[in-house]
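Hi everyone,

Forwarding the result from last night's run.
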Amino acid sequence: MRKILILLMSVICLVLVVNIAFAYEQISVTNGGSISGVVKVAGTVAADDATAIDMNKEDCGDTQKADKYIITGSKVANVVVWLDQVQKGKSLIKGTYPIVINKCKISPLVGVAYTGGEFTFSNEDKILHTLQLKSGLNFHKKLSSRPLKNGATVLNLALPKSAAEVKHTIPSYFKISNDRGYISILSNTHSFMRGYVFVFDHPYAVVTDNAGAFAISDVPAGDYTLKIWHEGFGVMEKKITVKAGTKVISDFIYQTGVEAGI
């Protein structure tokens, strides 16, 4: 057991060192390129889940639709699109990421936030909600035969009914990396409640709209890995080259029934 703890601490220290070594550098980007595209799905998509509610119906309703698959004519919404491990680029506007609970739903369901920014939590329901933010620990899967199902809890929060807004600074260790995944927002009371936040230290990340479209601007010329993630369809990636002042069109197509990884 002690050896496992020592190994775990060593991996954590290594992760911290790597994060420092690859800190994002903000520069002035002139004549940068842009990346845009549409994410689609081909094949038959499973019906969206609906959960029958057995408690707090006055706030949560009788059923809750998952809204996992928001698809318009094969075009997929709520897909996170980002450039992986960007080392330098335009200035990062950290901003505020609002997390709102209304009718027992977490909104937004999927989003992008930035290190050094701020989460704001608000509960518009008339009942107490308690949330857990969990960070996926990919390296833990390599160390344990019983890896944490939803990752490690990084924040516990109680939100009384119709309470004032609660603020929390987004620390650097929330950032997604090869060793840490996205942040899952879960409820301690209602198992159907969930949200996903991808935290970055650079501004080259977006979420597709209801038309499945995305656009990333002011990208320095260079070679990149463009990644996408969807709650139901998983992860895809491709290599792209951005040239100064040019536009790269990069569409993605998920194939249903094909494991894309999460």
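The CA atoms of residues 101 and 123 lie 5 Å apart.

Cheers,
N.
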